[in-house]
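Entry 12.
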Amino acid sequence: MATILPMSWQVEILNEVVAAEIEALPADIQARFVWLGDKIRLTGLDRLREPHVKHLEAKLWEMRLMGRDGIARALYVTARGRRVIVVRAFVKKTQATPRSEIDIALRRAREIL
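Predicted 3D structure (tokens):
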């Protein structure tokens, strides 16, 4: 009997603007983003919980990124085919994720959902 392997998750960046936001993050936080992306691809998004990811609202979630140089968030949505699409990345300066950042992410997510 053949073993059927589950389809793996893909982590994608929406566009060049979001790629530039990620590149603007401090190096240790970028490394954390890569680590978390690898973890999603290897073990599956459904196996991650807080403190790594957290639901914000509607279809919007956040990857929680911490490093020596501060705290950042990468906001994402999921799409068909087990795809995680990062729509916004920023350095976090307040305790709660700012409403303006959520609004930017939701506006960008509308392009693909």
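Annotation: The helical segments are 16-23, 27-43, 99-109. The mean pLDDT is 92.
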